[in-house]
Amino acid sequence: MAAVAYETLQLHVTPEKFYIEPCDDRVDDVLAIDRVSTEVTLTVKKDVPPSAVTRTIFGILGTIRLVAGSYLIVITKKKKIGEFFNHVIWKATDFDILSYKKTVLHLTDIQLQDNKTFLSMINHVLSMDGFYFSTTYDLTHTLQRLSNTSPEFQEMSLLERADQRFVWNGHLLRELSAQPEVHRFALPVLFGFITMHSCSINGKYFDWILISRRSCFRAGVRYYVRGIDSEGHAANFVETEQIVHYNGSKASFVQTRGSMPFFWSQRPNLKYKPKPQINQVANQMDGFQRHFDSQIITYGKQVIINLVNQKGSEKPLEQTFAKMVTSLGNGNIRYIAFDFHKECSKMRWDRLQILLDQVADLQDEFGYFLVDANGKVVTNQEGIFRSNCMDCLDRTNVIQSLLARRSLQAQLQRIGVLHVGQRIEEQAEFEKIYKNAWADNANACAKQYAGTGALKTDFTRTGKRTQWGLVLDGWNSLVRYYKNNFSDGFRQDSIDLFLGNYAVDEIDHSNPLHIQKDWKFLALPIIMVVAFSMCIICLLMAGDTWTETLAYVLFWGVASIGTFLIIIYNGKDFVDAPKLVQKEKID
C-alpha cells in the first residue's frame, strides 16, 4: 500500500497557506505549504480554514523558484489512457502555476519582465504533449525490472522507487522528496508516449501496450543536444517497451534509442544540415565507457544498430562510433552499421529485411521477458537493441517497429494467441492498430525533440512508401528547419529551467536573459524586409524600364549582401541560441 499516491485532491488556498487535502474519507492528513516561509508540513482536515478558496486537482507536479519567488504547479485536468493489471494510466492535459507571493509590487520592471519570461518557459514545457502518470503503478520501470525487486522496494513510495532517469518532475519535487511522510502527495510524472489497446486475434482478447520513456538526463532539442555528457548520459535517450497481457500472462520486449554516445555537436547555422563536429579535445573513451557500463548493468548485452549514412557529413560519426566500440573491446557490445538511406533508396524499403535477417539470431538469443499467470518468470530478456540515426527519430522508429513486430510474433505464439504458422501481418485489424500506434509513437518522440511530427510514418502506418508521404516529409522538414534555427533556443532554455539545469537566483538580479543579441542577429530580418520591399517595388514599377532595372539591381544587390553575410558568419549568429545554460555545458 506504500507505493500509492493520492488520486484526487482538494486544493484550499488562503493568503497564508496552500492546503492539499486527499479526497479520501479514511485519510485525515492534509499537506500544508506556507506561502511565506515555503515550509511543508502535515496537518489535519479540521485545520483548513472555512474561508479558503477550494478547487479539485489531480496531482502536485512540484514547486519552482523564479524571480518573484516560489510557485506551486498542479495538475488540473487529466485524460484516461487505459488500464492494465488493474491500474489506471492517466495523461496530464492541463496545469496551473500558483504564486506563493500575493503581490509582485516588490519587483522592478526588469524583474517583472524576467519573471514573465521564465513563466512562459515553464508554460511552454507544460504545453508539450506527453506527460503521463499513475497513482498506483510504477510507470518508470519495465516489467522485467519490477519483477526483480526486493520486499523493501515494494514498500517504497512511488517517488522513492522510481527510475530517476524518467521522472521529469524530479527537480520540482525535490522539497517533497526530502520528507518521506508526504510522499503520497508526490506524483512522479513520465514524459514520452503511452498507448493501450484491447485487441482480438482468433477470438482471443489481449491487451497490447506501447510505452516510450524519455530520459530527463541530457534532455533538450534536436541541434542543441547531441552526443553525451561527462556522466555518459546520451541525448534523446528513450526506452521503449512493448507489453502483451493475455489470460494473466505478461510479456514485454524492450529497446532503447539514443544519440551516438561520444562528444559531438551539430549547432544550427541556417544551413539545412549543419556539419557535425566531433570534439577532438575531450576524453572520448571515458564518457563512452560510462555510457555502456550503465547500459549493460541495466539491460544486459548491447547490439548497436547505427543507421546513419556511410558517406558525406555523417560518415566520420559512423567511423568514430565503430572505432570506439573496437577500442573498448567489450564482449557484451556488438556493433552493426546499416546505411538506411543507401539501402532503401529509390523506394526499396523491402531491403530493410536485410538488416532484420542480419540480427535475427541475436534477437532470438536475447529473447523477451515473460511471466505466467501464477507470477512465475518464464524467460528474461538477456540483451537489448540500441538503435540510432542522427536524430534517433525517423529511421530509428522504423527499425524499432520491425524488431518489435518480430518479437511480438514469437510472444503471441508462445502464449497461445497465434496459431502455428500464422503471421501478425495477416491479421488485418490488429496490423492496423500496430502500425498506427508505432507511427503515433514516432510522431510523439519527434515533436518532443525536433519540434515536428516524424518523417517516414507513411511506411510505418501502411508498410510502404508513398508519394504523399514524401510531400508530408518535405513539409515537416521545412517546419523543422525554421524551428531549429529560430525558436529552439527558447525551447532549450525552457527544458533546462524546468529540469533544474538552470536555477533562478532571486538575489542576483543579473541573468543570461539580459545578454544583448549580436548586431548580426538583427541584420538578417532587416535584410529580408529590405529585399522583400525591393521585390514589391520591382512589381509596381514593371512598366518603367529604367526604374525596373534599377530596382532589380538594388534588389539583387541587397540579396547578395545578405547571402554574403550569412556565408561569412556561417549563419551561427542569426539563430536563436539558448541563453540559460552555458555552451560548454550542452556541447
TrEMBL record:
Documented EC number(s): 3.1.3.64
Signal peptide positions on this chain: none
Catalysis: reaction(s): a 1,2-diacyl-sn-glycero-3-phospho-(1D-myo-inositol 4-phosphate) + H2O = a 1,2-diacyl-sn-glycero-3-phospho-(1D-myo-inositol) + phosphate; a 1,2-diacyl-sn-glycero-3-phospho-(1D-myo-inositol-3-phosphate) + H2O = a 1,2-diacyl-sn-glycero-3-phospho-(1D-myo-inositol) + phosphate
Chain segments annotated as transmembrane: 521-543, 549-569
Domain SAC: 122-451
PROSITE patterns xref list: SAC
UniProt keyword terms in alphabetical order: Membrane, Transmembrane, Transmembrane helix
A single cellular component GO annotation: endoplasmic reticulum-plasma membrane contact site
GO terms classed as biological process: exocytic insertion of neurotransmitter receptor to postsynaptic membrane; phosphatidylinositol dephosphorylation; vesicle-mediated transport in synapse
InterPro entries (alphabetical): SAC_dom
MF GO annotations: phosphatidylinositol-3-phosphate phosphatase activity; phosphatidylinositol-4-phosphate phosphatase activity
Species: Vombatus ursinus (Common wombat)
Protein name: Phosphatidylinositol-3-phosphatase SAC1
